[in-house]
Amino acid sequence: MAVNDRKYKTYELIVHHCVVISCFSVSMTQRRYAGYTLMALLVEVNSVFLHVRQLMLMVNKSKNDPFYRINNSFNLGTFVVFRVLTLGWMTRWLLQHRSDLETSHFYIAGVSLAVIMAMNTILLQRLLNSDYRQCPKPTVNEEHNLKVR
């Protein structure tokens, strides 16, 4: 990705994958936190709808197409359930079990969770702006003023 597609979003994905790999590596090498790791994988349920959305945009599917709109509804619904609620649960669990965790594991999980939550907030904002925000149409008066200038 870094070699063939040098865009800002590419670097976001690289950071995302590095964070996820570091967390899963701790779980795998320590043979601990399997339940927490499985909960983290629930976030990927939403990725199905995000990828379908991206594919539809790549083939220039209209945002008014019924299939696009249905996928959009599932995308937003699974985003809330499998990203927002899951990451909220993971935060609560991490704070409640802080004393049970090794300090380094707590900080790795906490920093990683903060990064992923920030990235998800930005992603949700982009989705809402792209698919749900209506650009205000200029009034007849504004259109006339633009043509006169």
UniProtKB/TrEMBL annotation:
The keyword Transmembrane helix applies. The chain crosses the membrane at residues 33-52, 73-94, 106-124. Keywords: Membrane, Transmembrane, Transmembrane helix. GO terms for biological process: membrane assembly; phospholipid homeostasis; plasma membrane organization; regulation of membrane lipid distribution. Its main location: membrane. Residues 1-133 form the TLC domain. It comes from the Eukaryota. Pfam families: TRAM_LAG1_CLN8. It is a multi-pass membrane protein. It is found in: Membrane. GO terms for cellular component: plasma membrane. This is TLC domain-containing protein. It comes from Rhynocoris fuscipes.
